[in-house]
Amino acid sequence: MKKISLVSLRSSGEQYLKDGDAIVQELEAQNKNEVLFFSNKNIVYKMKAHEIPDCKAGVIGEYLTNLLKCDDDEKIVYMTVTQDYSGYMVFGFENGKVAKVAMESYATKMNRKNLLNAYSSKSPVISFNHITEDVEFAAVRALCASSEQISLEDGDVFDKVTVFNTSLISPVTAKDSQGVQVLTLRKNSIMGAVVSVSEFKCNDVGYYRTSKIPSAGHFMTEIDKRENSF
């Protein structure tokens, strides 16, 4: 992770990264904000932005395992910032369910550094999104050749999409909520991706849009399959 001031960022050159690394998230924040780091072990780590050292674009940055004191086999998979814990965390799961958890559920009166059960572990989580108001997402079905986990690197496994508004999902305060069924799945299929509708490239978003959940979705056109890699 790199925390770079806007002044430094404007005057800096190319971002220095280790071989094989890539930037996966960019967020704008203030020093008074809180930063939430979600790990693959259902834990959320919390830090004040001012507690994170400043750096330049020409350095590697902070190694999150050391910064947050994570386990060696633990990975940070999503990061967000908040000032007042408004809005919601939206989690998508392989079983086709989506949970809409009030951000205030992650607020604590004591200065706790981490919270357990930050999201449901009943089904593998495939997407994390912090929203401040209801928005549209595209939920994508992926086919499995067997009951074993499939490789989502092959774009041909994606076959159906439903575009839904998060207003269809009632918010909850339980961080580990299993969510509600959004995408109807058949045998040997999973929900392989949940992306913002702006990231979903298609000629006619209305073709995929639903006003009710759960939805079976619509088959992707061949053009839309080629345009999206998820």
Overview of the molecule:
The protein has 230 residues and is mainly β. The protein folds into 2 domains: 1-83, no CATH class; 87-104 and 120-230, Neuraminidase (6 Propeller), CATH 2.120.10. Helices cover 9% and strands 29% of the residues. It has 4 helices and 12 strands, in the order H-E-E-H-E-E-E-E-E-E-E-E-E-H-E-H. The chain has helices at 6-11, 64-68, 205-208, 222-227, and strands at 34-39, 44-48, 76-82, 88-93, 97-102, 114-115, 125-131, 136-143, 158-165, 180-181, 189-196, 218-219. The strands form 3 sheets. It has a 4-stranded antiparallel sheet. The protein has a 4-stranded antiparallel sheet with strand order 7-4-5-10, with no helix packed on it. Strand 4 (88-93) and strand 5 (97-102) form a beta hairpin. The chain is globular, with a radius of gyration of 19 Å. The mean pLDDT is 92.
Q: Mind sketching the topology for me?
A:
Blueprint lengths: L5 H6 L22 E6 L4 E5 L15 H5 L7 E7 L5 E6 L3 E6 L11 E2 L9 E7 L4 E8 L14 E8 L14 E2 L7 E8 L8 H4 L9 E2 L2 H6 L3
CATH top level class name of the largest domain: Mainly Beta
**Gyration radius, rounded:** 19 Å
The amount of helix comes to under 10%
Count structural domains.
Answer: 2
The CATH superfamily of the largest domain bears the name DNA gyrase/topoisomerase IV, subunit A, C-terminal
Mean pLDDT: 92
Beta-strand content: 25-35%
What string gives the helices and strands in order?
A: HEEHEEEEEEEEEHEH
Name given to the CATH architecture of the largest domain = 6 Propeller
Please state the overall shape, judged from the principal axes of the Cα atoms: globular
Class of secondary structure makeup: mainly beta
Number of strands: 12
